[in-house]
Amino acid sequence: MGDYSKALEFYEKSLKIKEKALPPNHPDLATSYNNIGQVYNNMGDNSKALEFYEKSLKIREKALPSNHPYLATSYNNIGLVYNNMGDYSKALEFYEKSLKIREKALPPNHPYLATSYNNIGEVYRNMGDYSKALEFYEKSLKIKEKALPPNHPDLAISYGDIGQVYNNMGNYSKALSFLEKALTIQQKTLPPSHPHIKETIRRINNVKKV
């Protein structure tokens, strides 16, 4: 918590200086608001995070072209907060805005696209729409498998997410297969007592009980 309050103090001092020195719609102000929103998001303060992310977005929408990557970041950040708040239709709306820009602006195997697909998959999973969740998780995985080394921890996260969706859908053999892939990577890349390993083992045991 101490680190967050220090970061907040630093960003707020920086913002104060910028607010005096810059015109009200300057992109540097948007960056400051975004950074403060990020700290509040890390602290789990959703309403404060949303307030600052929206301030940042307001400036970026005025100051930047409509397909600028910074706008995609703003939409993604706001989607993240709505997802944390359980407002899934709003989360989806902002994630899709972000994805639209990224699909136009980035090469098809860019990691940011994988992040967008993954985020949208997560919302669909939270909404209980498992076939849609699977579709987006698989799109994300496809990019990660091309872009990352075979034992990268991000691949383990994707395999774990897909395993969970198959579990939710009642396809237990598929669930087991993906969860075991996740565990294999985690055991190679993480210390044995890491919470991710414990969680994956717990999930595997749950599937085996069914």
UniProtKB/TrEMBL annotation:
GO cellular component, one term: microtubule
Protein origin, superkingdom: Eukaryota
InterPro entries xref list: TPR-like_helical_dom_sf, TPR_rpt
Keyword hit for Cytoplasm: yes
Cell location: Cytoplasm, Cytoskeleton
Role description: Kinesin is a microtubule-associated force-producing protein that play a role in organelle transport.
Listed name of the protein: Kinesin light chain
Organism encoding this protein: Rotaria sordida
